[in-house]
Design goal:
By secondary structure, the chain is an alpha+beta fold. It contains 10 helices and 7 strands.
């Protein structure tokens, strides 16, 4: 009875500001967990939660409770060091959401609809030709997150995007074919770039090194990556750590246009992103 009365008193004393405070904290916590969900850092959060529960429930065992509490702080530091790449990925995802204002993708911010369509058409044409010829390719579209660390690993070109240029780069006898190209706006910035590989466990054995690289760059940045398999000729698209496989020219064009052309006039706010189809 006393407990019920205490809960009732607590409920009656809640202010509107308290309710707003709880809603904001819950909202932020939920979206942080969503951002962590696709990375190994989510396992860190779950393990830490289990450890904290163990510390709480062992209060009646003085020795064990003392040892667990003594391990808590150095354990957290050790986990942060071990999971540094995953935490970096999670923080990058947080930054990709934008902050209190409108942000436009680097492909579309300074280009009109015709230029966007032309750039995408050139990439799709090249990808379709690669697919028919079973030529492997990695084509990365830079968006809001800069890719300077990646372009530095390759050869600077600074040339306008065209299907002919892409085909010459990824020709098996070309010295630049082994690696990725990075596109910023309508400019092919660099070729033969090295991409980070995904460390996601349980990835299908059919995913080759190009697909792992495409997933890696899409996990660590907001880049969009077109992949053509040398073995099967299948075209895939990596976005936000997810891989869409076996796309034909029409579907690839539709996906890229929906990402860039439609995104041109859509504002993005912190922790909110328009759902991509």
């Amino acid at each position: 009875m006393a407990t019920m009365q205490s809960l009732l008193d607590l409920f009656l004393n809640i202010r509107v500001l308290d309710v707003i405070d709880i809603i904001v904290v819950a909202y932020l916590l939920y979206h942080v967990l969503v951002l962590l969900r696709r990375t190994g850092a989510f396992s860190l959060v779950k393990g830490l939660a289990v450890f904290l529960i163990a510390v709480a429930v062992t209060a009646w065992l003085p020795t064990l409770h003392y040892l667990l509490r003594a391990m808590l702080f150095p354990g957290i530091i050790a986990l942060v060091i071990i999971f540094q790449p995953e935490l970096r990925t999670a923080l990058t995802r947080l930054g990709k959401a934008g902050f209190l204002g409108s942000q436009l993708s680097n492909l579309s911010s300074s280009m009109d609809a015709e230029d966007i369509q032309q750039t995408i058409s050139e990439v799709v044409e090249a990808a379709g030709n690669f697919s028919e010829s079973h030529i492997g390719a990695l084509i990365v579209f830079q968006r809001e997150v800069g890719l300077m660390d990646i372009t530095r690993t390759g050869k600077t070109l600074a040339a306008r995007v065209s299907a002919e240029l892409l085909e010459s780069i990824f020709h098996p006898k070309s010295p630049l074919h082994d690696g990725a190209v990075v596109i910023r706006g309508s400019t092919l910035v660099a070729a033969a770039c090295v991409l980070p590989y995904t460390e996601r466990p349980g990835l299908s054995a059919s995913a080759g090194m190009r697909h792992r690289a495409a997933l890696g760059v899409s996990e660590q940045t907001d880049a969009v990556c077109v992949v053509v398999s040398e073995e099967t000729g299948a075209i895939s698209l990596a976005i936000d750590g997810a891989l869409s496989r076996r796309l034909d020219r029409a579907h690839l064009t539709e996906r890229l246009m929906s990402l860039f052309a439609a995104e041109k006039s859509v504002p993005k706010f912190m922790f909110w992103k328009r759902e991509r189809k």
